[in-house]
Design a protein that fits this description.
Strand order of the largest sheet: 1-2
Helix content: 55-70%
Oligomer: single chain
Largest sheet: 2 strands, antiparallel
């Protein structure tokens, strides 16, 4: 008890209001749980479509000589595009994800949409066929077309 006769404890009005709000939020969560799972799948598909298209275009830049080294692409994507540096750059991420997986998705989207911008470029296709499970964009080596050129780093 306070010295002035007030009781210590939870205000009954506040407790009732908190209980009502808690019930509302629980019913919202259960009602929309399936929506959030579907939304997460759609978000993942959107991210993959954007990232894999960037990987394909980056490989096309290497193929055409617009970029000379994969490190240049990774640096440009980190500092220019805002790609997360912790992932090591776009092409390092592609290596980690698996070039064959990316090729599979790009081919699927090409067939599904009949849109040629998803068609894997020759350079990416060659890398994927050469790499199997190995990293293509490691600092020790540089692929250009179908030739493996040792990096001078």
């Amino acid at each position: 008890m306070y010295s002035q006769g007030k009781q210590v404890g939870v205000n009954p009005f506040v407790a009732k209001r908190m209980k009502i709000e808690q019930l509302k939020s629980n019913s919202k969560d259960s009602k929309h749980a399936h929506v959030s799972k579907n939304a997460a799948k759609r978000c993942q598909a959107i991210v993959e479509r954007c990232i894999f298209t960037l990987v394909n275009e980056s490989c096309r830049c290497l193929e055409e000589g617009i970029a000379l080294r994969h490190e240049d692409v990774d640096i440009a994507m980190i500092f220019g595009f805002g790609f997360p540096p912790a992932l090591g750059g776009l092409l390092k991420y592609a290596d980690d994800y698996g070039l064959l997986n990316i090729i599979t998705c790009l081919n699927m989207w090409t067939e599904k949409t009949r849109d040629t911008r998803f068609k894997p470029c020759k350079y990416l296709s060659e890398l994927a066929s050469l790499s199997k499970d190995k990293a293509c964009f490691s600092p020790e080596r540089l692929f250009y077309g179908s030739k493996i050129i040792k990096s001078r780093l």
